[in-house]
Design brief:
410 residues, elongated, mainly alpha, PBS_lyase_HEAT
């Protein structure tokens, strides 16, 4: 029976026997690799014990395969290996600082895979004292270790990692730069975010996307120019991320700055020929669960939508008017008023809401208010009749106000 068939049939004990007894290094390395797929197996305890022993053997190939498999099996498995190597009994209830100390010791191991595993393990522990030790690995000769160390430093999120991570942003390996950029975005202090700005031009698409995605965490308009530049990126994923970051930026900045930044964003977007910004904005309005994002998106859509996207945007804004969020309804109404148009599409859609007695009076009132800005003779006649027919004071007051803007009653 082949090794693949043993793994397929769940013969964990047979693979363990080969790992322990075979004289063929290729066989033992392959057995160690396959045992990493036995996470839910009844013999998992035996699998972990066998891999821990194999990882401390003389064969580099078998050691690497065993460590990779222990990493696949989870934190408890790799912790057992590191505890064994450090001569420390790391039980499940061991204090995190005890585990971290053992992991930091393993960061100096000769085998790169063990350094990788140790770096991974430190990322699961909230131990800020591990950051300086992880930072030492940013210059590891193995790029995989550098990448894992940067990732874990970002997970811990201690600001002491910021300056060392800045140095990793110029690493020759794109995978390492990606992890460093992501880590700085997670740390999110002013220095970290500032360091990410130049990466919107990185050669690697994923590095650009990670950096642009972090720009939304700023609390000022510093990244607006960079985000607008990113809207012309060759990668659709980067362009989409830039749109999301612009909306996130508007949601994060202090209220006293938001109006100025909104105007800056509109100005920049109006001066770009790339219209791919609108569809992601519509998706945010329709799908986001965050109120601030949806409100800013609704406001922005009325000011950056071109004729070719207008119908889709109107549909989305009309749906927003029918929602529960009063402020979102107001933002959507102002954008519908901005879109207006000679085709009367906005007017027709709003009249559908106004005429529906089953719609909440507050929602109908918002639609009536907007008709006062975009309606014509048809709206005036409808509202004139509505004043006499409605039993709702809110609707009657809104209708009086709107009809006065449309020429008054006749």
């Amino acid at each position: 029976m082949s090794l693949y068939e043993l793994e397929r049939d769940g013969k964990a004990q047979e693979l363990i026997r080969l790992l322990r007894e075979s004289d063929n290094e290729r066989v033992t390395a392959r057995a160690a690799e396959l045992l990493g797929n036995f996470d839910d197996h009844d013999d998992r305890r035996d699998v972990v014990n066998a891999l821990v022993r194999a990882a401390q053997g003389d064969s580099e190939a078998v050691t690497a395969a065993a460590i990779d498999s222990l990493d696949e099996l989870g934190d408890d498995a790799i912790t057992e290996l590191i505890g064994s190597m450090a001569g420390v009994d790391l039980e499940d209830d061991a204090a995190d600082w005890v585990k971290a100390k053992a992991y930091m010791q393993a960061l100096d191991a000769d085998v790169a895979e063990l350094r990788m595993a140790a770096a991974n393990g430190l990322g699961t522990l909230d131990q800020a004292d591990a950051v300086p030790k992880l930072a030492e690995r940013f210059e590891d000769p193995d790029s995989r270790v550098r990448a894992r160390a940067a990732r874990s430093a970002g997970k811990i999120g201690d600001s002491r990692a910021t300056t060392p991570l800045e140095g990793v942003l110029t690493d020759p390996k794109a995978a390492v730069r990606r992890e460093a950029a992501d880590a700085l975005g997670n740390i999110g202090n002013r220095q970290a975010l500032q360091a990410l700005l130049p990466l919107y031009e990185d050669d690697d698409e994923r590095v650009r996307r990670i950096a642009v995605g972090a720009f939304g965490n700023f609390e000022n308009d510093r990244p607006v120019d960079y985000l607008v530049e990113a809207l012309s990126d060759d990668s659709a994923a980067v362009r989409r991320t830039a749109v999301y970051s612009l909306i996130e930026l508007l949601s994060n900045v202090p209220t006293e700055q938001s109006h100025e930044i909104r105007d800056t964003v509109v100005e920049k977007l109006s001066n770009t020929d790339d219209r791919s910004v609108v569809l992601p904005l519509v998706e945010i309005l329709e799908e986001s669960s965050q109120a601030a994002q949806r409100r800013n998106t609704a406001w922005l859509l009325g000011r950056v939508t071109s004729e070719e996207e207008r119908d889709r945007v109107i549909d989305s804004l009309v749906d927003a008017i029918s929602g529960d969020d009063q402020m979102l309804r107001q933002f959507a109404a102002t954008s519908l008023a901005e879109l207006g148009g000679d085709d009367n599409m906005v007017e027709r859609r709003l009249l559908d809401i106004v005429k529906d007695d089953g719609v909440d009076p507050q929602i109908r009132g918002q639609a009536i208010f907007t008709l006062g800005k975009v309606g014509g003779e048809r709206s005036r006649k409808t509202l004139d009749r509505l004043i006499d027919d409605t039993e709702h004071d809110v609707i009657r007051k809104k209708a009086f106000s709107a009809i006065s803007k449309l020429g008054g009653r006749r």
